[in-house]
Amino acid sequence: MFELPSGAEIQSIISILKSGLGFFIPEIYLSILFMGLIILDLALKGRNKSGILGWATLIGLGGSFYFIAQQHAMQAGEHFFGMYVLDEYAIFFKYFFVASGMFAVVATLADRKFDAEVKSIGEYYALVVAMVIGMVMMAAASDLLMIFLAMELVSLSAYILSGYFKRDARSSEAALKYLVYGAVSSGLMLYGFSLIYGMTAETNILKISMELADHGYDPLVMILATLLIMAGFGYKIGAFPFHFWSPDVYEGAPTPITAYLSVASKAAGFALLLRFFYIAVPHGVSPYEDIIGIDWLTLLVIMSVASMIYGNVVAIWQKNVKRLLAYSSIAHAGYLLLGVIVMDEIGTQAVLFYLLSYFLMNYAAFYVVVLISNRTGSETLDDYRGLGSKMPLAGAALTVFLISLVGLPPTVGFIGKLMIFSALLSKGALYIWLALIGVLTSVISLYYYMLIPLNMFLRESLEPNEKSLNPGFLAQLMMAVLMILTIWFGLFFEPLSEFARYSSAMFGLSLY
C-alpha cells in the first residue's frame, strides 16, 4: 500500500534538490528569460514592439553563455536523483542550442514576411527560448522520464512555431503534419521505454545498462524496445524512414523555424541518440558484436545508407529551395549516423565536429534564402534566375555555403565529411563500403546544390527588371562574415576539432 513520505524523507528530498540547483543555473536563467519575454510582450505597445522583443531575446540568450561557461569548472556527475547529468558532452550542446536560438532570432529579425503575416509576435520569441530549454535538457537527460519530458517540451513548441503563419495554408498544413507524426513517434518511443522499464525496473540509463548486463534480457523484447525507441529518435533526427514530416514542414514553416528545426532539432536528436545507445544499450566484448542475436548497429547502418541515398536522390527533382534543403537534411542525418556507427571517441568527435560545420553552413544558407525571399517573394528555383547580377554578394555567399554542404574544399563542410569518413576507415576494411557510399552520394548532392548558383549566375531572369535587389548593409555584412567563417574554418579547423574532442567525454561511458 502506498504511504506518504515521512518528514525526514521529505527533508532529504529537498536537500538533494537544493544540492543540484548549482548545476542547473543555465536552465534556470533560460526559464526566467522565457517568463520575462512573456511579461515584456504584455507590457510593450507600439510599432517597435517586435524589434525590441527580438533584441531582448538575442541579448538574453547571449547572457546564458556566461552561466554555461561556469560549468566547465564543475565536476561531471549525476544530479536530481540521477535524472540529469553534467559533463563536457552536455555543455557542448548547451552552447550549440543557445547559439542556434540566437541564429533563429537573427533570421526572424531579417525576415519581412513576419511583418505581413504576424500581428503579435511576443509568444514567438518565448517559444524559441522554450525550445532551447527543452533541447538543453535533452542533451543532459540521463533518465527515461526526463528524456521524454524534454522531447515533448521541444516538440510542443515546434508544433506551434511551424504553424505560426496562421493565414498561410502551407504553414497550417506543416503544423498539422508535424503534430500527427510527432504524436505517433512519441507514443512509439514511450512504449519502447515502458518495455525497457519492464525488463529492468529502472529509468536511469546507467542503471538500465548495469541491470541488462548483470541479469540478462529477453532477446525478442529487447529487439522490439530498440526498434520502438529508434522510431522516436529517428523522427527527431529526420532520418529515413522516419523523415516523412520533413519536406512538408520545412516548406510550410517560417524559414527561420525551418533552419532552426533542420539544425538544432536534429542535433538534439543526435545528442540523445549517442548518449542512450552508447550507455543504456548493452554491448558485447566488442561493440560490434550482436547484443540480442541481431546486431543493432545493422539497424543504424541501414538507416544511414537509406537516408544518404534517398535524401540525395529525391532532392534532384525539387523545385522549391526550402524543400530541396529539407531532403538534403535527410541525407546529412545519414552522414551523421556514419559517425555514430563507429562507436568510439573518434566517431563521437567526428559527429560533434560535423554538427558544428552543419550549424554554420546550413544556418548561413537559410539566412540567404530569407534575404532573397524578402526581395523576390518566392522560394522556387525558377525565381532565382538572374539573381547573381541583382544580388551579387548573396549569390556568392550562397554558392560558398552550398559548396560546403556538398563537402568540397576549402570549406568547413569538407573537413566535417573528411572526419566522418576517416573515423570509418580507422575501423578497417569492413567500413570502407560505407565511406564509399558517403562519397558517391555526396557527388549526387553536387548536382542539385549547384542548380541554385546555375540559375543565379548562368540563366537569365524571367523578369525584365534589372535593378539591384541588394539587401541592407547589416545583412550584407552578416553574409560576408558567415562566408569568411565557412572558408576560415575549412582552412584552420583545429579550434573546432579540439573543442569537439574535448566535448566527446560522456559521464558513465565505458565504451571507449
UniProtKB/TrEMBL annotation:
<dbReference type="InterPro" id="IPR010096">
    <property type="entry name" value="NADH-Q_OxRdtase_suN/2"/>
</dbReference>
<dbReference type="GO" id="GO:0012505">
    <property type="term" value="C:endomembrane system"/>
</dbReference>
<feature type="transmembrane region" description="Helical">
    <location>
        <begin position="257"/>
        <end position="281"/>
    </location>
</feature>
<protein>
    <recommendedName>
        <fullName>NADH-quinone oxidoreductase subunit N</fullName>
        <ecNumber>7.1.1.-</ecNumber>
    </recommendedName>
</protein>
<feature type="transmembrane region" description="Helical">
    <location>
        <begin position="147"/>
        <end position="166"/>
    </location>
</feature>
<feature type="transmembrane region" description="Helical">
    <location>
        <begin position="178"/>
        <end position="200"/>
    </location>
</feature>
<keyword id="KW-1278">Translocase</keyword>
<dbReference type="InterPro" id="IPR001750">
    <property type="entry name" value="ND/Mrp_TM"/>
</dbReference>
<keyword id="KW-0813">Transport</keyword>
<dbReference type="GO" id="GO:0048038">
    <property type="term" value="F:quinone binding"/>
</dbReference>
<feature type="transmembrane region" description="Helical">
    <location>
        <begin position="20"/>
        <end position="40"/>
    </location>
</feature>
<feature type="transmembrane region" description="Helical">
    <location>
        <begin position="89"/>
        <end position="110"/>
    </location>
</feature>
<feature type="transmembrane region" description="Helical">
    <location>
        <begin position="324"/>
        <end position="343"/>
    </location>
</feature>
<feature type="transmembrane region" description="Helical">
    <location>
        <begin position="220"/>
        <end position="245"/>
    </location>
</feature>
<keyword id="KW-1133">Transmembrane helix</keyword>
<keyword id="KW-0520">NAD</keyword>
<comment type="function">
    <text>NDH-1 shuttles electrons from NADH, via FMN and iron-sulfur (Fe-S) centers, to quinones in the respiratory chain. The immediate electron acceptor for the enzyme in this species is believed to be a menaquinone. Couples the redox reaction to proton translocation (for every two electrons transferred, four hydrogen ions are translocated across the cytoplasmic membrane), and thus conserves the redox energy in a proton gradient.</text>
</comment>
<feature type="transmembrane region" description="Helical">
    <location>
        <begin position="296"/>
        <end position="317"/>
    </location>
</feature>
<keyword id="KW-0472">Membrane</keyword>
<feature type="domain" description="NADH:quinone oxidoreductase/Mrp antiporter transmembrane">
    <location>
        <begin position="141"/>
        <end position="445"/>
    </location>
</feature>
<dbReference type="GO" id="GO:0008137">
    <property type="term" value="F:NADH dehydrogenase (ubiquinone) activity"/>
</dbReference>
<keyword id="KW-0874">Quinone</keyword>
<dbReference type="GO" id="GO:0005886">
    <property type="term" value="C:plasma membrane"/>
</dbReference>
<feature type="transmembrane region" description="Helical">
    <location>
        <begin position="349"/>
        <end position="372"/>
    </location>
</feature>
<keyword id="KW-1003">Cell membrane</keyword>
<feature type="transmembrane region" description="Helical">
    <location>
        <begin position="393"/>
        <end position="424"/>
    </location>
</feature>
<feature type="transmembrane region" description="Helical">
    <location>
        <begin position="473"/>
        <end position="493"/>
    </location>
</feature>
<keyword id="KW-0812">Transmembrane</keyword>
<dbReference type="Pfam" id="PF00361">
    <property type="entry name" value="Proton_antipo_M"/>
</dbReference>
<comment type="subunit">
    <text>NDH-1 is composed of 14 different subunits. Subunits NuoA, H, J, K, L, M, N constitute the membrane sector of the complex.</text>
</comment>
<dbReference type="GO" id="GO:0042773">
    <property type="term" value="P:ATP synthesis coupled electron transport"/>
</dbReference>
<dbReference type="GO" id="GO:0050136">
    <property type="term" value="F:NADH dehydrogenase (quinone) (non-electrogenic) activity"/>
</dbReference>
<feature type="transmembrane region" description="Helical">
    <location>
        <begin position="52"/>
        <end position="69"/>
    </location>
</feature>
<comment type="similarity">
    <text>Belongs to the complex I subunit 2 family.</text>
</comment>
<feature type="transmembrane region" description="Helical">
    <location>
        <begin position="430"/>
        <end position="452"/>
    </location>
</feature>
<feature type="transmembrane region" description="Helical">
    <location>
        <begin position="122"/>
        <end position="141"/>
    </location>
</feature>
